[in-house]
């Protein structure tokens, strides 16, 4: 076991973590970043990124995150390819233990561990991820203009995604395993009134179908949850909208979370319920969940950490 000391420790190397690293490094705080289980975050499983400002042409998600990582290192951040396994926030300096056996002591902590989309966990879903299967209509809906798509789910997220896609796509079919939605009534009413949206009740996705050259999604095979019968539906894309899970298990019982497990931050701030601990990106954002908003809160967290260290929080 090796013990290290730093003024700023950042957990996560997605858009929020890398941006926080850039800003704290430029403030000469010499931040250390633990890359985590999925270095680069959710953008590393995204293909074309067309809505991140600064690029006239689409860029690849993994490339974009690699550029952010290199920029952070160029500014002076140290990125460690290790993963936090336990955190003690009871006193400063905060203590973080890693999978590699190291112990990090830090005066401030920026949590940018993100959130993970919930998936159907069927083999064909993984096979066609990025080839017509997505978990973000705002991110990828543009690529299905004038095409037929499927949205899987029955909560607010699914209904909102379907309504968003109806403005872009030719037709949207919502697949829900029950005979009624869990979404808010006003959202249900909007969806059911939309002539471009159809609903397949009491159905679940048995398999995602694909083919072509280049290979991509061509349809889905549905299973009736009552009779068990199978039927095929042609489509060009499948959007999984069964929710997200914030990566906050490490902080259970130590930091305030909302009913869905997202870290609670103060209004107009990234400050959490413990002074010196800040949260940025999808780990505290269950509304927007975009790379650009994650980067924005990463910047905020860095500026707040710097201010904390320069005022009454300094040790």
Global geometry: elongated
Show unreliable segments: none
User: In percent, how much strand structure appears in the residues?
Assistant: 25-35%
How many E strands? 19
Give the biggest sheet. Answer: 7 strands, mixed
Number of helices: 7
- Percentage of residues in helical conformation: 10-25%
- What is the SS-derived class? alpha/beta
Distance between the termini: 25 Å
Helix-strand blueprint:
Layout: E1 3-11, H1 15-26, E2 32-34, E3 48-49, E4 59-60, H2 61-75, E5 78-80, E6 84-88, E7 94-98, E8 103-111, E9 115-117, H3 123-127, E10 133-134, H4 137-140, E11 148-152, H5 156-166, E12 171-175, H6 185-193, E13 197-200, E14 203-211, E15 216-224, E16 230-234, E17 237-240, E18 244-246, E19 277-279, H7 291-310
Helix pairs in contact: 1-2, 1-7, 5-6
């Amino acid at each position: 076991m090796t013990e290290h000391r730093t003024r700023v420790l950042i957990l996560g190397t997605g858009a929020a973590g890398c941006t926080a690293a850039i800003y704290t490094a430029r403030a000469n705080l010499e931040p250390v970043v633990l890359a985590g289980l999925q270095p680069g975050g959710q953008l590393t499983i995204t293909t074309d990124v067309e809505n991140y400002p600064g690029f006239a042409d689409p860029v690849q998600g993994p490339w974009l995150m690699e550029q952010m990582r290199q920029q952070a290192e160029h500014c002076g951040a140290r990125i460690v390819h290790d993963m936090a396994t336990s955190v003690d926030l009871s006193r400063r300096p905060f203590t973080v233990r890693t999978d590699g056996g190291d112990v990090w002591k830090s005066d401030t902590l920026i949590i940018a561990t993100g959130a993970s989309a919930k998936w159907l966990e069927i083999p064909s879903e993984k096979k066609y991820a990025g080839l017509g299967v997505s978990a973000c209509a705002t991110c990828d809906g543009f690529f299905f203009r004038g095409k037929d798509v499927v949205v899987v789910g029955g909560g607010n997220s699914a209904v909102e995604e379907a309504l968003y896609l109806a403005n872009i796509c030719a037709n949207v079919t919502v697949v829900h395993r029950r005979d009624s939605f869990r979404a808010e009534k006003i959202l249900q009413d909007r969806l059911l009134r939309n002539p471009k949206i159809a609903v397949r009740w009491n159905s679940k996705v048995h398999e995602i179908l694909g083919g072509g050259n280049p290979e991509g999604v061509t349809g889905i095979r549905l299973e009736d949850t009552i009779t068990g019968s199978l039927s095929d539906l042609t489509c060009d894309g499948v959007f999984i909208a069964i929710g997200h899970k914030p990566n906050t298990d490490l902080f259970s019982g130590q930091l305030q979370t909302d009913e869905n497990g997202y870290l609670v931050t103060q209004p107009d701030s990234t400050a959490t319920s413990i002074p010196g601990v800040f949260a940025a990106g999808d780990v505290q954002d269950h509304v927007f969940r975009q790379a650009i908003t994650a980067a924005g809160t990463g910047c905020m967290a860095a500026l707040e950490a710097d201010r904390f260290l320069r005022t009454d929080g300094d040790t």
